[in-house]
Amino acid sequence: MAARITATILPILSLLLLLAGTGAADDDKAFVYAGCSQGRYDAGTQYESGVDSVLTSLANSAPYSPYANTTSPSAAAPVAGLYQCRSDLAAAVCSGCVRSAISRLSSLCSWSTGGAVQLHDCFVRYGNDSFVGKPNTAVLFKKCGGSPGDAGGVAMRDSALGALAAAAAPAGGGYRAGGSGGVQAMSQCVGDLDAKACSDCVSAAAAQLKAGCGSATAGEVYLGKCYARFWSNGGGFASSDAVHGERLFLAVAGGFFASVVYFSLVLA
């Protein structure tokens, strides 16, 4: 079943949004969203060399660490970049995901001065703004689906998400996982956040899912520097029909994502 996306976009930012098909939640490279700045750079410039240097460095780091950030050596045209894999992934899976994300950036955001792409299990971003180390709890993408549940399922979901938010900040990557009854939940922060900023981001993500997903039995939300998901033990999004009529939000303040964008998803 094909998806048709309609959008109203303010002029500062071009954003691309696709919905992965059936079973995509099991694919670590499934596409979630991408953003490309409208600022452009020219071929043969120091900025082009900086982008190439940063993305190459990130790809080379991915087999060894779930998170890395780097800055190009040129003081005249600096480029910063980072990636974050889900911290419990095997190194080979992380590396493959990051390389796939970089390939997406190269095709979707070619010649853009800044870009970001979120795949199911990794995130890559580059640009000339100072985003590294700065918290960002603005909502980039939210999806709720699955078969409608009951009050007991909602209570288990809220308990599972609440436990994520209340958990002590884990060492080495910000990955949290847990469950309550028949509901599982997980979250991941970008590695440039300190422990408090990570906890604050997870709390904000959990609040978005609790407030926005009603009795849905699966949901996921991606904020600027973290994401969270929940699903019933029976599985996640069973089919593309599960999100018919859902509203997907992209509303971000500050930094690279400086515009407000509203998307409505209609399944044809």
Automatic annotation (TrEMBL):
Residues 29-131, 135-235 form the Gnk2-homologous domain. GO terms for cellular component: plasma membrane; plasmodesma. It is found in: Cell junction, Plasmodesma; Cell membrane. It comes from Lolium multiflorum. It comes from the Eukaryota. CDD domains: Gnk2-like. PROSITE patterns: GNK2 (PS51473). This is Gnk2-homologous domain-containing protein. Keywords: Cell junction, Cell membrane, Disulfide bond, Host-virus interaction, Membrane, Repeat, Signal, Transmembrane, Transmembrane helix, Transport. It is a single-pass type I membrane protein. The chain crosses the membrane at residues 248-267. Residues 1-24 form the signal peptide.
